[in-house]
Amino acid sequence: MSSNIHSVVIVGFGGMGKYHAELIKENNSLEVVGTYDVLEARRTDSAKAGYKVYESYEEVLADPAVEIVLIATPNDVHKEIAVRALQAGKHVICEKPVAMSKEELQEMLAAADAAGRVFMVHQNRRWDEDFLTIKKMYDQEIIGSLFQIESRVHGANGIPGDWRHVKAQGGGMLLDWGVHLLDQLLFMIDSKVTSVSSSLSFILGNDVDDGFEAILQFENGIKAIVEVGTTNFITLPRWYVKGIEGTGIIEDWSLTGRLVTRNNEGQKIEPKPIRAGVGLTKTMAPPSEGATITEALPQPAALSSSFYDNFAAVIEGTAEPIVKNSEVLRVQNLIEAIFESAEKNQVLKDFDMYGEGK
Amino acid sequence: MSSNIHSVVIVGFGGMGKYHAELIKENNSLEVVGTYDVLEARRTDSAKAGYKVYESYEEVLADPAVEIVLIATPNDVHKEIAVRALQAGKHVICEKPVAMSKEELQEMLAAADAAGRVFMVHQNRRWDEDFLTIKKMYDQEIIGSLFQIESRVHGANGIPGDWRHVKAQGGGMLLDWGVHLLDQLLFMIDSKVTSVSSSLSFILGNDVDDGFEAILQFENGIKAIVEVGTTNFITLPRWYVKGIEGTGIIEDWSLTGRLVTRNNEGQKIEPKPIRAGVGLTKTMAPPSEGATITEALPQPAALSSSFYDNFAAVIEGTAEPIVKNSEVLRVQNLIEAIFESAEKNQVLKDFDMYGEGK
């Protein structure tokens, strides 16, 4: 019944909408047939790019040629656009963060269920090679079982753009970048989050956070530190992970990094004390020569298919979604716990939706 | 009444005792005249080094030629040795961590008061140049007012030595290294700690912590992260600090580092979006060319004198102690709060002794 190429209308033709249009050009499962945007300038952009320009959202929904609505608007209008699309019988791809609250998301998921249509959130950073390199290390215990995972994204530009400054539109760094970093961790680590503590940063004087730090403790013993900053003129490494046998680092998006592990073949030589500052230390002396091995990062893990191909296969009933809605709901719930922990300055426990709705 | 060279007996002639002996050779205020150690091998070391070897602690205390007892034993016996020395009319220099508990320290301070003798803890890392460089930045707001201070010490050797593994002797990294890093922060930042959260690491299977992380929130708005690890085969920077105008980093003990600040003279150019992983980001793009300035670290701040000279001057009544006992007690209290926060996995508030006993 379904063709092999599925038609997409992009709603919201800003930076992300245009980026989707470019990426879908390279994809064989989906095809962008048109766009809708409330701003005149973006309708002009779309026409120039050769897409059909819908004059109203009603027109999109009424067009039987449209199979999929892709939502790339500010966050506060995701819900209404998604629910109306689902009710009109369209499948929906929604940008992240999916919703303003867990309740909004639940409403969206109920609409998808009622309509029997596919709803999938574009958690595209599950496909990032830096993350998939860490995932390989985690799954295959390349530096031994990982027990500490630090995931940081640092910039010095403040919060760019317009609506990303505005609380009512779902701005702020916890929602914008936190949703990716948290989604990656929960996707990789199959264990319950037993506690979270966090703090938000408001250095730039916006009404939304310009950065945050959250510390997650998992039931399986892993501690994860997730940090986003937009006032960091020097960046700390994108990933810093500790395993039983060594440490791994990925400096940046270019996948510069290395593994340093204990050399179990080497002689056991006590390190020599060094003078560090005005004191002596053996504890913090560099390991003796030959005591460690430095290696290149492993190749990234591979996911079963691209986001768009997976979405098409789910529509066609031939695959399970890689980004499951129960996972997206769990991340949304975790984000709300992080906001609450920061506001109360308390460690939160017993909140995680791990295992629910699987 | 007092001579200008004060006689010292070192009690505990292990690594730190010997290090003191070497350092005091270069000092004009103090002179090591003898040592006492319970181990035969160390008595031999001391004799070889030309020091008088006391056969018992009683003999040290009974010797009127001894003005100062310097305690460099395991932590669990500091108190008894110190109290007996003070009661015998000696001044005392004590290694860190000063005591097993706040109560022990209070007993030591009461003995010093009762005897009218000087008791000072060797918090020598207040003189570390890396710390004094950060202190200069803090005091002079070189990258603007600092609002985040991250102080880390990472090693890969586990916990070396013998008694440092043993809880009953005051082992573990929070007591061994934490006491330095926390002392530095409280010495530098004149503000109350309003909350602390922490976790300890027990990866090596000792009965003491092999590392910890503590997050301190100060009343003046500063957030500090203090972390010690002994299973870090790759080290994160010794210091990472964020100010309103820029970021500073000190990589290691060799004072490799830099400042990167906003270029207020430069044109305001929006950064260009970059492709990072599979996504686009303007937020995390590097700042535009000319938007920042990179500078060398400033010269370290200077303290009024060396530890030993200050100790001698305090004995002579010509100076206030640089390491005040009220400060040492406050750090001990903070350490106990960090243990409690980690054990309960809670944020602790309303515990800081800021301003008490000043």
Automatic annotation (TrEMBL), chains A, B:
UniProt KW keywords: Oxidoreductase
Enzyme Commission number(s): 1.1.1.371
Span of domain Gfo/Idh/MocA-like oxidoreductase N-terminal: 8-122
Keyword match Oxidoreductase: yes
Source domain of life: Bacteria
GO molecular function terms attached to this record: scyllo-inositol dehydrogenase (NADP+) activity
Cited InterPro entries: Gfo/Idh/MocA-like_OxRdtase_N (IPR000683), Gfo/Idh/MocA_oxidoreduct (IPR051317), GFO_IDH_MocA-like_dom (IPR055170), NAD(P)-bd_dom_sf (IPR036291)
Short name of one Pfam family: GFO_IDH_MocA_C3
Domain GFO/IDH/MocA-like oxidoreductase: 131-247
Broad enzyme group: oxidoreductase
The keyword Amino-acid biosynthesis belongs to this UniProt entry's keyword annotation: no
PANTHER family, alphabetized: CONSERVED EXPRESSED OXIDOREDUCTASE (EUROFUNG) (PTHR43708), OXIDOREDUCTASE (PTHR43708:SF8)
Protein name: Scyllo-inositol 2-dehydrogenase (NADP(+)) IolW
Organism expressing this protein natively: Paenibacillus pseudetheri
